[in-house]
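pls design
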Protein backbone atom coordinates (compact mmCIF):
# COMPACT_ATOMS: atom_id res chain seq x y z
CA UNK A 1 0.00 0.00 0.00
CA UNK A 2 1.33 3.40 -0.97
CA UNK A 3 1.88 5.99 1.75
CA UNK A 4 -0.55 8.89 2.01
CA UNK A 5 0.45 12.29 0.66
CA UNK A 6 -1.07 15.70 1.30
CA UNK A 7 -1.36 18.84 -0.76
CA UNK A 8 -0.90 22.02 1.27
CA UNK A 9 -1.00 25.79 0.84
CA UNK A 10 1.19 28.08 2.95
CA UNK A 11 0.59 31.81 3.37
CA UNK A 12 3.75 33.91 3.46
CA UNK A 13 4.52 37.25 5.08
CA UNK A 14 3.70 39.14 1.87
CA UNK A 15 0.31 37.35 1.67
CA UNK A 16 1.40 35.24 -1.30
CA UNK A 17 0.35 31.59 -1.38
CA UNK A 18 2.68 28.61 -1.90
CA UNK A 19 1.34 25.19 -2.87
CA UNK A 20 3.26 21.96 -2.31
CA UNK A 21 2.97 18.27 -1.43
CA UNK A 22 4.35 16.25 1.45
CA UNK A 23 3.72 13.16 3.54
CA UNK A 24 3.98 15.40 6.60
CA UNK A 25 2.93 19.02 5.88
CA UNK A 26 3.78 20.32 9.38
CA UNK A 27 7.33 18.96 9.12
CA UNK A 28 7.65 20.39 5.61
CA UNK A 29 6.41 23.77 6.88
CA UNK A 30 9.24 23.78 9.43
CA UNK A 31 11.70 22.94 6.63
CA UNK A 32 10.38 25.88 4.61
CA UNK A 33 11.26 28.15 7.55
CA UNK A 34 14.87 26.96 7.21
CA UNK A 35 16.25 28.74 4.13
CA UNK A 36 18.55 25.79 3.30
CA UNK A 37 15.86 23.10 3.27
CA UNK A 38 12.83 25.07 2.12
CA UNK A 39 11.66 25.94 -1.36
CA UNK A 40 13.39 28.75 -3.28
CA UNK A 41 10.04 30.58 -3.06
CA UNK A 42 10.77 31.21 0.63
CA UNK A 43 14.25 32.65 0.17
CA UNK A 44 12.65 36.06 -0.32
CA UNK A 45 9.58 35.42 1.87
CA UNK A 46 8.79 34.08 5.32
CA UNK A 47 6.24 31.25 5.66
CA UNK A 48 3.58 32.29 8.19
CA UNK A 49 1.10 29.41 8.40
CA UNK A 50 -0.44 26.46 6.63
CA UNK A 51 -3.84 27.69 5.46
CA UNK A 52 -5.04 24.57 3.61
CA UNK A 53 -4.36 20.84 3.56
CA UNK A 54 -5.91 18.08 1.52
CA UNK A 55 -4.87 14.57 2.58
CA UNK A 56 -5.36 11.00 1.42
CA UNK A 57 -3.54 11.25 -1.90
CA UNK A 58 -1.03 8.93 -3.51
CA UNK A 59 2.14 10.73 -4.61
CA UNK A 60 0.84 10.73 -8.19
CA UNK A 61 -2.59 12.13 -7.33
CA UNK A 62 -1.00 14.72 -5.00
CA UNK A 63 1.22 15.96 -7.84
CA UNK A 64 -1.77 16.19 -10.16
CA UNK A 65 -3.83 18.07 -7.55
CA UNK A 66 -0.89 20.39 -6.77
CA UNK A 67 -0.61 21.27 -10.46
CA UNK A 68 -4.36 21.93 -10.65
CA UNK A 69 -4.27 24.22 -7.59
CA UNK A 70 -1.26 26.12 -8.96
CA UNK A 71 -3.28 26.90 -12.10
CA UNK A 72 -6.06 28.51 -10.06
CA UNK A 73 -6.29 32.28 -9.78
CA UNK A 74 -5.61 33.88 -6.40
CA UNK A 75 -9.36 34.42 -5.91
CA UNK A 76 -10.06 30.75 -6.66
CA UNK A 77 -7.33 29.69 -4.21
CA UNK A 78 -8.80 31.94 -1.51
CA UNK A 79 -12.24 30.42 -2.17
CA UNK A 80 -10.73 26.93 -1.82
CA UNK A 81 -9.09 27.89 1.49
CA UNK A 82 -12.30 29.38 2.85
CA UNK A 83 -14.58 26.44 1.99
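designed seq:
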Amino acid sequence: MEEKWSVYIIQSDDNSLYTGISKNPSRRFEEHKNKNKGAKFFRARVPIKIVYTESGHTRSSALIREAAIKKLSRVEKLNLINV
